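stuck on whats below:

***
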Amino acid sequence: MIIIRHVSNTVFQENTYIAIDRKKNALVIDPGDDPGVLIKRIDREKCRVRAVLATHAHVDHVLAAGPLCEHYKCPFIMNGRDGEWLKQLESMCREFQLPWYGSPEIDIDIDGKETMETGGFSLRVLHTPGHSEGSVCFLFDHTLFSGDTLFRHSVGRCDLPGGNEKALRRSVKEKLFPLPGGTKVYPGHMGTTTIDEEKRNNTFVR
């Protein structure tokens, strides 16, 4: 069983998640906020951050990844297929008038991996290209962190470099919809949902 804490930043309304197990080990997923804000929130939980994960490498999901990994001395885990986005992080910050806190290096590349163990956590890696070439979702038991692949009654945009509408629709139908209907979905933006809810009401893939 894991406890999920949530931080939403004010610029992109992006969701950063802190997953904490019974032993107070934690994973930080999609850290898109000011690192100082996230560190303060994480430290309130008195947990030990074992890794920082990104579902993809757009600026609003990796903004604080570098500082968090340095502060907590933990690895950064991401699909290397999105590596070019990391190289553009500084310029993306300038474009959106955001502070640049440094670009993280990928310590564990999950390209091609379907399962992984990290920090005491066991998770499945679902490769879901469409929003970006390297987009993935992370599945812990019946809890899915869907990044910008699947939102409540919607999906992520697919008009950015590396995006593909057909691939995104296929990812949702073939990788996510076969999951148990009660699977709780924690998306990169907007509120939580379930697989059953999206199968009934998501017009993009229905």
Q: What stands out?
A: The chain has seven helices and 14 strands.
